[in-house]
Amino acid sequence: MIRWIRPRLGTAPFNEIPEGDFAVVDVRRLVDKSGNPSGAVLEAVEAGLQLLQAGRTVVIACDFGISRSNSIAAGVLSRAEGKRFDAALADVIDATGEAEIKIAMIETVRAALEPVSMRSDRSSLLITGGSGFIGRHLSPLLASGQRVLTPLRNTLDIEKGAAELGRYCCEQNIGQILHLAYPRAYTNTNAAGSSVNMLRAVLDVCKTLDIRLIFVSSWVVFSGYASTSLWADEGVALRPKGAYGDSKYIEEMLVRAHADRGDVKVSIARFAPVYGTGGDRPRLIGTFHQSLLRGDTISTHRFHNGRPALDLLHVTDAAQALRCLVNSRIDDVFHFGAGTLTETAAIAQMIAEIVQKPLRLDEIEIDDETSNVAMISSKAARRLGWKANVNIDTGLRRMLSITQ
Q: Which segments constitute the NAD-dependent epimerase/dehydratase domain (predicted)?
């Protein structure tokens, strides 16, 4: 099947080209990744261009009609119409609907056609998911002296693959990516798959364009420990549980594999549960609040090994942590948390006192083990100068003063 970019220029898998009066440019001799010599790339582009100029209908073909063919087609279109490679690539993606073009192949063609330094300006920061809860609190902290981009999904959708993200990063000269984007329904299996695909696109772009990555992970990579009080520093072995925990674990393994190979410079920020104004997590805060306003009884839980407790990190402290990582350029793993565990029943009591409502509690026995994890942040304090400044009582009062 041929996908037409222009009336006389298309791409296709080599074995699916129908009979017809086509001039086929076979680019299968190129490898489907980085490493192709510029001379071979330019030869393929020039072959397609000369055939077009001779009035022929040209089909550029590789094994699957995805990366090599479409990257070379963008090069041909760029030369034929006298436009920038990025503009030609956008036309190819729009016409073919192919968003999975490998960024390494794209950048090989770009470098052959427009040989410039691949080194990015380190002052430019892209925040994926920047319009979300943490991103909204972080952006104002970085505005002074920092070029920060927080595109909405209709401007940049990283679920469409590395090609779109790479094009955006080249256009905007991005030097660092802070990856906050995650599916909103974050605890199901579909979200896990989507999150890994997004991260792979980010990693491919960071590797190819030499962009530093700040990856935000979570305490849930320790949620498989059955403990009423696990004090987790960066040396504790990961042990996830549940779809979200497994997803973050897999993502961390991908990130660390790229870092260990020297492909990407990366910092990993593991956060305790983040709460605060404008957020809806942990959901028990909103649930407790609404139950108190209605006069309902609040149900808390008791597991085999005890009652659940949370190390809650206020969003302003989380934003300050990310600001430290952006500005420090220190590539390592850091834990960020308040470092204290508060039982859910005690959280309910605090909320009741804030809203001045009587508290009625009951307790449900749960046939499972609780995992209470406090994030030890001494390394962040020592190397980044960071500490949590907002205690849970102050944080809840700030949060609930807005919602009442």
A: 126-328
